[in-house]
Amino acid sequence: MFEEILAVFRPAILFPWLLSMAFGVLIGGTPGLTATMGVALIIPVTYYMEPLAGMAMILGVSFTSIFTGDIPATLLRIPGTPASGAATLDGYELTKQGRGMEALSLDLLCSAIGGFIGILLLMAVAPPLAKFALKFTNFQYFWLGIFGLSMSAVLSAGKPLNGVLSATLGLLVSTVGMDITTGLPRFTGGNMELLEGIGFIPAMVGLFGLSEVLKNVGDAKLLGESSIPEFGRISLLGTLKIILRNKMTVLKASLLGTCVGALPGAGADIAAWVAYGMEKKTSKNPEEFGKGSIKGVIAPTSANNAALGGTWIPALVFGVPGDSITAIVLGAMLMYGLRPGPLIFQENLKLVHGIFAVGLISQLFLIPVGLIGIRVFGKILRMPRNIVMVIVLIFSVIGSYAIRNSFFDIYIMAAFGVAGFFFEYLDIPLPPLILAIILGPMIEDNLRVGLIKTHGGLGEFIFDPICLTLIFLILFVFFGGPVMKFFRRKKGE
Amino acid sequence: MKKTLRILFGVSLVLVSLWVIRTSSTFPEAVSAGKKIPGPAFFPVLLSVVLIPCGLHQAVSALRSGTEAAGRRWGSGAANGAIVILSLVVYVQLMQWMGYALSTFIFSMFLLLRLRVGVLKALAVTIITVVFILLVFGRLFQIQLPLGELGIPW
């Protein structure tokens, strides 16, 4: 492990890594640009790099942008990323009281501590879990994939049925191209460029990049907007004292954040809300929450960065993404020629250790980078939205083109961008769609191979302890809430 | 508008699903050791069977929703959206002809001016963006940016 830690300080890894963290500051600090989008935009740049450098860039962007997303959330009440939604509540109240910098410095240190705990848990849990995952059969992998999609469908904003629709549509999109078993072209319309399937990166850049641009240029009033209030001075020593007084809140929120992040389909945004809600529920002074409570800042900001470590657990161990960022990571790993899943712990153990090392060291880098981010963010936030959107659009086009030097991929990006814009307008969540495009081949392959093995028999698909557990979990994800409500109502009567 | 869009979306989903089922029926069947096994049509048909009720639900629930739900106003914002998409198509065509740098310069200037950014600011942003991408994608990561038919080296 020591060797891997030293290896990440090679210039070929260190420079792109630090650059990506600076990019993360820009992405997270700019409302409307999400961490997912930042990762999506950076993937084409990593295409020609060694895998660890690519992974370092992805980790760098994701950790930094999740933190810097809290900056506009705290100062403007506009979450820079969805994961910063819960940070707006008490952070903004503190800003209104002239304590914005206190909130932000707390946020920065809690993000670093939360991220550190998340990665430590990932290091502790992932390897033994991978040994267990090696024994998984086709049927079990099929149900695990469906479980991941179900979680994503239910936990995404909007109605669960819309989530199911989005996931099913994504699975259908994943069937375009050459059939994995027979080599038959499916739904390509004779287009050679579609034989390899619909490019996952152009689709994702369109869904998260172009659709965001369309949403923003569609709101003419917001285009030139940029304003920030006065927010005081920073004191790291004072902040450390506050954290020490609230160490249990930091620890609880970080552990909770990691666990929520590890659930396939959940992510940093859900983790932050769950941690905030839990802290408020268990607090002796719940009435202080929403009025500038320090614990109300600590809990969500520790949890959202801790969740990032958690999301890597299912991604690395089972090849099932924990959230939309790790969904993109899985796509990137496949692009680098790696096989995410339990075998990666045997085939690419050095890379896995490298990822752990990058994850831990990123938390240390996060503090100076975050401080710089806080200082320069004023300038970034002052950049009008119309300029940011044009730059994002150009990056989306070049990023989509760069993967295969294909103009067709730019049209794919545009089509998915327009679709993503309308889907969001119709309250159809995008994360299940992108997760399904990535998981589609794995789910179809395991379903078909499994059915071939059982000669079409469904018994082994269902009557196996792990399959039954996963089926129960899937049913619980969809019907657990309504069933529990029904029983509570009955009990009340 | 939202109601109409939802109905259209639901109906389109049903039509696409039916098309998928019809197209999949032309795929050859897979046979192993004399037994039929799940072939290339199996998964798409299965998904279409799930999508049809989803599409019907979208259309029917929109029809039942009664009055048009208040949603986004489609004024100058919609025009901006349409212009972004149209200019994107023109941009790709231009890129194939005149290469990356010149086409990106024109595209960026046009959009920035359309979105009411001042001329000098637009010029500065455009030049910085074009040069930044050239340096990062083209030089640092050695990604071949489009040359175009004019053969301009950048």
From TrEMBL, chain A:
<feature type="transmembrane region" description="Helical">
    <location>
        <begin position="351"/>
        <end position="374"/>
    </location>
</feature>
<protein>
    <submittedName>
        <fullName>TctA family transporter</fullName>
    </submittedName>
</protein>
<feature type="transmembrane region" description="Helical">
    <location>
        <begin position="410"/>
        <end position="441"/>
    </location>
</feature>
<feature type="transmembrane region" description="Helical">
    <location>
        <begin position="386"/>
        <end position="403"/>
    </location>
</feature>
<feature type="transmembrane region" description="Helical">
    <location>
        <begin position="12"/>
        <end position="45"/>
    </location>
</feature>
<feature type="transmembrane region" description="Helical">
    <location>
        <begin position="51"/>
        <end position="69"/>
    </location>
</feature>
<feature type="transmembrane region" description="Helical">
    <location>
        <begin position="461"/>
        <end position="481"/>
    </location>
</feature>
<keyword id="KW-0472">Membrane</keyword>
<keyword id="KW-0812">Transmembrane</keyword>
<feature type="transmembrane region" description="Helical">
    <location>
        <begin position="106"/>
        <end position="127"/>
    </location>
</feature>
<feature type="transmembrane region" description="Helical">
    <location>
        <begin position="194"/>
        <end position="214"/>
    </location>
</feature>
<feature type="transmembrane region" description="Helical">
    <location>
        <begin position="255"/>
        <end position="276"/>
    </location>
</feature>
<feature type="domain" description="DUF112">
    <location>
        <begin position="17"/>
        <end position="435"/>
    </location>
</feature>
<dbReference type="Pfam" id="PF01970">
    <property type="entry name" value="TctA"/>
</dbReference>
<dbReference type="InterPro" id="IPR002823">
    <property type="entry name" value="DUF112_TM"/>
</dbReference>
<feature type="transmembrane region" description="Helical">
    <location>
        <begin position="164"/>
        <end position="182"/>
    </location>
</feature>
<feature type="transmembrane region" description="Helical">
    <location>
        <begin position="312"/>
        <end position="339"/>
    </location>
</feature>
<feature type="transmembrane region" description="Helical">
    <location>
        <begin position="139"/>
        <end position="157"/>
    </location>
</feature>
<keyword id="KW-1133">Transmembrane helix</keyword>
TrEMBL record, chain B:
<feature type="transmembrane region" description="Helical">
    <location>
        <begin position="74"/>
        <end position="91"/>
    </location>
</feature>
<dbReference type="InterPro" id="IPR009936">
    <property type="entry name" value="DUF1468"/>
</dbReference>
<feature type="transmembrane region" description="Helical">
    <location>
        <begin position="122"/>
        <end position="141"/>
    </location>
</feature>
<protein>
    <submittedName>
        <fullName>Tripartite tricarboxylate transporter TctB family protein</fullName>
    </submittedName>
</protein>
<dbReference type="Pfam" id="PF07331">
    <property type="entry name" value="TctB"/>
</dbReference>
<keyword id="KW-0472">Membrane</keyword>
<keyword id="KW-1133">Transmembrane helix</keyword>
<feature type="transmembrane region" description="Helical">
    <location>
        <begin position="42"/>
        <end position="62"/>
    </location>
</feature>
<keyword id="KW-0812">Transmembrane</keyword>
<feature type="domain" description="DUF1468">
    <location>
        <begin position="9"/>
        <end position="146"/>
    </location>
</feature>
